[in-house]
Each structure stands twice: as structure tokens, then as C-alpha cells.
Amino acid sequence: MQSWKSPALPGRQDTAPGELRLYDTAVQAVVPVGPSPGENRPATMYVCGITPYDATHLGHAFTYLTFDLVNRVWRDLGVDVRYSQNVTDIDDPLLERAGLTGVDWRDLAANQIALFASDMEALRVLAPDSFLTVTESLPLIEDAMSVLHSTHQIYQIGDDTADWYFSFDGRPGFGRESHLDGDQMRASFADHGGDPDRPGKRHPLDALVWRQARDNEPWWESVLGPGRPGWHLECAAIACSTLGTGIDLQGGGSDLIFPHHEMCAIQGQAFTGLPFARAFVHSSMVWLDGEKMSKSKGNLVTVSDLLGQRADPMAIRLALLGHHYRADWQWHPEFLAQATRRLDLWREAVHAVTSVDAGPAIAAVRDLLRDDLRADRALEVIDAWAVASLAAEEDHPGARQQMADLADGLLGVGIA
After folding, report:
1. Of 42, 31, 124, whose CA–CA distance to 370 is shortest?
2. How far is residue 12's CA from residue 410's CA, in Å, rounded to a whole number?
3. Is 364 helix (H, G, I), strand (E, B) or coil?
4. Residue 58's closest CA among 304, 289, 257, 291?
5. How far apart, in whole angstroms, are the C-alpha atoms of residue 166 and residue 329?
6. Would strands 291-292 and 286-288 be described as parallel, antiparallel, or unpaired?
């Protein structure tokens, strides 16, 4: 499926060697992620995509902006990037919303995917190289299921549904990403759509791989019979098929750590025989009125609503970038007002007739972004340069264009 149009990037300004360091959830430390300096290979990144039954809210946008920064920092380091993202266009929430609204589930998914793509393009998010829906990836998923079936790593429930489950019990490495104990895993599994208490399962944490066809539900033929795939296997199969094994980064919101990312990794390893990812990176949650912003709760501020209210998309981007990716935070309209004032300051400075040397500020922004994406502090560095430039008595040759290119290429904020 075609994604959206990526913005053009300015040419690289810095050719000095360096590396990107991020917080790896599995090792619980900030570590180098991606190719080492001098290592001649692309960086690979898989980020879990949307379930398209409602508009893109600011929590979604915060996640995709986080990994857009990762993409941009790698590119600024001179690293080629291969980026893959899925769309879960067949899932219970989508079918439920379609039933409630009387809209065909395929039409609902198509409309929301188009809206998501429009939002991402407005926010100047670099498009993934591979943007695949689950329904167009069924052959990839069936290939993975066939391996699991032939190697006896999945089993069928012995009731009239005949659903298939992945047997995880005793697999080395399970739990290393989430660091949860058994009771915590079971509780989180239940909270995130799992079925730990289902009769007939060998272990409470065994995850659904193939849901056999039900009346009034879409289904497809497969080696396991008619039905539709389970959530975790979908992502594992798409990631491994588009990027290979040992991807540099699996990313998403922190609400996906367990069970989704943990189970993607263990299932991917099960059907390839190789480690799934080198690092697991997660963005924090955005809250509204004391609760995590989520489609299921309906407590949303959407990108399309803000754009419909004539908010500058670059101000929306700045409002989100003003928060460090690992710190949960609560949305307030004042953040957009502050970001609008910041955007006005930056634009005034790059269109002024005076400026100060941009070199030290540019170096500081690069260092901050390479060190665990400290975008919140990087914005303050550009603020200081803008204020000093507006107060300067002469112009520093090229400084204003250099700063505009930096804001554009590294932060994704168009100010020229």
C-alpha cells in the first residue's frame, strides 16, 4: 500500500562520525542503536502502526514523531534507513466500530488510513519505505504460520472454535524486554486483549495465532483453515519479511511493551530461528484530563481537529517535540499556544536581517538529539539563538539558512 509523500530533506551539513544513543527497554539503559561509526550497512526500524477505526490522536502523533526523529538523526549521521510500518486493518475494535456505525469495515479502514496518512504528511513525518496492511500481508503471515505449524510450535484448542495458539512456555528470553514477573504478565495480557483464562490453553500466556472463522466475520483460507491472524504474529511476520532478522529497533508506544512487543519478538524468533531485534525503544503516553489518551476511552485530541481549527501543523509538531519521548505528560491547549509563539520567533529570526553564528547552536542541537533524543532541550537552544540573532547588530553569513536547514532536516520543522 502506498503511504504518504515524504518532505524533501536539505543536504547533510555534518559529516563527522557519531552515533545515536537511545533507551533500550530490554537492557534498561541508554545504549548505541543502529550501525556503528564506519559500519557500512543501513539502519533498520519497525514501528507498530495504527488500527484504523478512529482519527489520529496526539498520543499516536507523539509516537510517530519520536521515531521520525530517530529516522532523521540516523540520516543526519549519513546512515541509510530502511523503515517499515504496518496497519492492523483487521481486528476486533475495527469490526466493532464498523458494526456500531453501519459502515463496511473495509471502507472504515480505508477512510481512517487516508486520514492518518494526511495527518502524517501535514506533520512532515518521513514516510516508511514499507507501509503494509495486514490484509495485503496475509501470504507473509501464512508463511510464518506454516513454519510454526511444521515445527510443532503452535497447537489447536480442542473446542468448537478450533483456534490456534502459540506455545511460549519455557522459551529462553521471554520476559527480557518487559521485566515483568508471571503475575504481572498475566494481568497485562488480560488488560490488553489477551485471554489467560481461556479453557484448553496449555499456558495462560499462550497467544492467539489464527482465529478460526466465525459467523458474520471476515475470514481467509490458510494452511490452518479459514480464519484471520492474531495480532502479534502479524507484526512479527511483516517486520521479518520487510527488514529481515535482527532489526536495529522495534518501536512503539510504551503500552505495547507487554504483551505485544514481547510476543512479537518471541514469535519472530520462533519462525526464523534468529533474534528478532537488537533494541526495543518506546515512547511515553500522552494523557488528557488525568487519563491516558486512547481511542477506547474516547478522550481524544486529534491532529485533524487541531488542523481543522487552523492550527499551524508546525506548531503542533513543536508542541509535541517539547516533551521528552520517555516522560509521560498531559496535554493542555497552552502547549499549542506556546509552540505557536516559538514558531513565530524562529521564523522571525530566519527572515531577519541580523544573526549570530549558528555553529555552536547547531552542534549543541546535534549532540542533544544524538543523546537519547533530547528534543525538548534542543528547542531551547534554537530559542536562544533566535533571541540573540534578533538582538544582534550585524549578520553572520549563512547562519540563518544553516539554522533553517537544521530545523527542517533534524527536527522536521519548516521555518524558511
Report:
1. 31
2. 10
3. helix
4. 304
5. 36
6. antiparallel
DSSP letter assigned to residue 158: S
CA distance 251 to 257: 9
Say which residues have a Cβ less than 8 Å from residue 95's Cβ, sequence separation at least 6: 105, 217, 218
- Phi and psi based region of residue 28 (left: phi greater than 0; alpha: psi -120 to 50; beta: remaining): left
Q: How far apart are CA 234 and CA 109, in angstroms?
A: 17
> What pLDDT sits at residue 293?
85
Give the HSE-up count for residue 186: Cα atoms under 13 Å, Cβ half-sphere. Answer: 8
Query: What DSSP designation does 107 have?
Result: H
- Cell 456500531 -> residue: 100
Q: Which run of H or of E encompasses 387?
A: helix 375-391
Give the amino acid at 395: D
Give the cell for residue 311. 492550527
CB of 247 closer than 8 Å to CB of 154: no
CB 401 within 8 A of CB 366: no
Phi and psi at 359, nearest 5°, equal -55, -50
Q: Which three cell numbers stand for residue 21?
A: 544513543
Residue found under cell 544513543: 21
Nearest Cα to Cα of residue 267 among 383, 363, 150, 166:
166
Could you identify the residue written with the cell 534468529?
A: 274
pLDDT digits (tens, 9 = 90+) for 216-226: 999 999 999 99
Predicted local distance difference test score (pLDDT) of residue 259: 96
pLDDT-derived band at 297 (thresholds 50, 70, 90) equals confident
Q: DSSP 3-state helix, strand, coil percentages of the chain (rounded to 5)?
A: 40, 15, 45
| Percent of the chain predicted with pLDDT > 90 | 90
Pair 215, 160: CB distance under 8 Å = no
pLDDT average, residue stretch 154-177: 89
Of 200 and 289, the structure prediction assigns the larger pLDDT to 200
Q: 227 CB contacts (<8 Å, ≥6 apart)?
A: 163, 210, 211, 212, 213, 219, 220
Give the three-class secondary structure for 46. strand
Q: Which three cell numbers stand for residue 363?
A: 552542534
The model's pTM is 0.96
pLDDT tens digits for 222-245? 999 999 999 999 999 999 999 999
